[in-house]
């Protein structure tokens, strides 16, 4: 760890990255990638951000907001995502969500070595599911001062029959055929509402975050289902948790205008109902007009997200840290 070497990052001169080699798995060599701002805020406060499914870190504005509020900013591209996706690997492939714990262990260890003592662990969507589980039983959970979850993926956005019968059956089959691929069936309208090439505000690398999301392996489905079952049974995260989600779910698939003001990926009712099961100190906030990734919402909505977030952090972080 003493010889950490950062390299230039694709986001430009404000950012740099460090590739972390991990033990080989069932596909071969594995890495994860830690990204940080080159010019960090002073002091011990920091955030580690973890992206969602078919995703990677590209949100420059989010990093700038954290720095403006006195936080050092780091983001982690998990194994087989974005910067960490190697040519021999299947994108996003995982068989147990605990595989990501090693990535989080390494990132948190580096942050602590670099002087971060009040760390906010943040995750979006699938990243929200992963970091919630890690905050419950990860090796370095004691390093976490608070947890911020942006539209966490706590249940499948499916009808009752699929959620109660179809998904559990498919997850069971994933034990025996983990590499069998099935379509993810997520709406293309969500991606089109984001990217500048269509009608969105944002520019990002479409091969890593395509409009039509990557298919999933049955092993991935089994891993996600197991994570969802753990959330449903309840966790015991001792640190304060903030969960944010949109105030509504897209009701009419295909209507593009809805994807700019509602969650077009998950059912916000599931998030609202399951979040209190994370631990004894959970705050849940609905954001009017928010989209699935709240920090990519329209400017006025983003302002509300950041106001709520930093007011909450000021209230819950240890004295002298905020």
UniProtKB/TrEMBL annotation:
<dbReference type="InterPro" id="IPR029058">
    <property type="entry name" value="AB_hydrolase_fold"/>
</dbReference>
<dbReference type="Pfam" id="PF12146">
    <property type="entry name" value="Hydrolase_4"/>
</dbReference>
<protein>
    <submittedName>
        <fullName>Alpha/beta hydrolase</fullName>
    </submittedName>
</protein>
<dbReference type="GO" id="GO:0016787">
    <property type="term" value="F:hydrolase activity"/>
</dbReference>
<feature type="domain" description="Serine aminopeptidase S33">
    <location>
        <begin position="45"/>
        <end position="262"/>
    </location>
</feature>
<keyword id="KW-0378">Hydrolase</keyword>
<dbReference type="InterPro" id="IPR051044">
    <property type="entry name" value="MAG_DAG_Lipase"/>
</dbReference>
<dbReference type="InterPro" id="IPR022742">
    <property type="entry name" value="Hydrolase_4"/>
</dbReference>
